[in-house]
Amino acid sequence: MIENILITAGGTAEPIDRVRSITNTGTGKLGSLIAARFSEYEEVKNIWYVHAKNAVMPECDKVSSVPISSAEDLLCTVKKLCAENRIDAVIHSMAVSDYRVRSVISAQEVFAASHESADIDELFRFTDKENLVKKSNKISSDMHNPVIFLEKTPKVLPVFRKLLPEAVIVGFKLLDHVSHEELIDTAHRLLQKNSCDYVLANDYQTVEAGAHEGYLIDRFRNETAFSGKEAIAAGTAEAVMKGAI
Q1: Distance (Å, rounded) from C-alpha 25 to C-alpha 47?
Q2: What SS3 state is found at 61?
Q3: In terms of Cα–Cα distance, which of 30, 39, 38, 36 is closest to 9?
Q4: How many CB atoms lie within 10 A of CB 208?
Q5: What are the structural domains of the chain?
């Protein structure tokens, strides 16, 4: 029985320094609608809504708000929630940043360092000395031509199956201007790689056009199409609660 649900929503923000960050277009609107749909089921008791600080919030009594900021913050938070609570289903709709800021230094420093060594790994090691200083303070607006070095963020989706072997897990995959076949194939590979029960595939061009279309994919590559965020939310909740699309 599905009683306790964890939903992630919104877009993470990766700090550049204490007052600046890199983020994305995730609003949490779809996640909030999914939470509201789940709250309508009598058997659902608790919904942990792990969200970006500016994400759209669901208006329902069963929801516990858990704000986070960065991808690392998200990972630590979900690990703690999964360790301390029995969670029956996970809806990972959050737009997690693929990259975080490694360091910010001036173009002049990069140029000088690149002349000292042509080794890209050595150049990245050079940026480490600036990393803690720059990210713990406000970068001066007097810096000319700042260069931001990025590195990959930790993946969160694979963690859920390791922590919750019996839970129903729904991942999300967003691509932009791809063929339908590529969208479904990519979503199904994500499902298989991360041992999800479902993946909701969507293309940003439909989101941008205001006609959000989503395709819920199961382990057998079956797909069901939904048009509009309300329909996607209802279809996702129903699939999880009933165990079938």
Answers
A1: 24
A2: coil
A3: 30
A4: 12
A5: 4-98+155-242 (3.40.50.10300), 100-152 (no CATH)
Residues 2-43: tens digit of each pLDDT: 999 999 999 999 998 888 899 998 999 999 999 999 999 999
Instruction: Give the integer Cα–Cα distance in Å for 181 and 115.
Output: 46
The CA distances from residue 205 to 39, 40, 200, 212, 213, in Å, are 30, 30, 15, 8, 9
Q: What is the share, in percent, of the chain residues with pLDDT greater than 90? A: 71
Please give the sequence-ordered ranges of beta strands (E in DSSP) within 36-164, or none if there are none. 46-52, 63-68, 89-92, 99-106, 146-152
CA 214 from chain centre, in angstroms, equals 17
Between CA 207 and CA 214 the distance in angstroms is 9
Q: Has residue 210 got a pLDDT over 80?
A: no
To which residue do tokens 């939904």 refer? 226
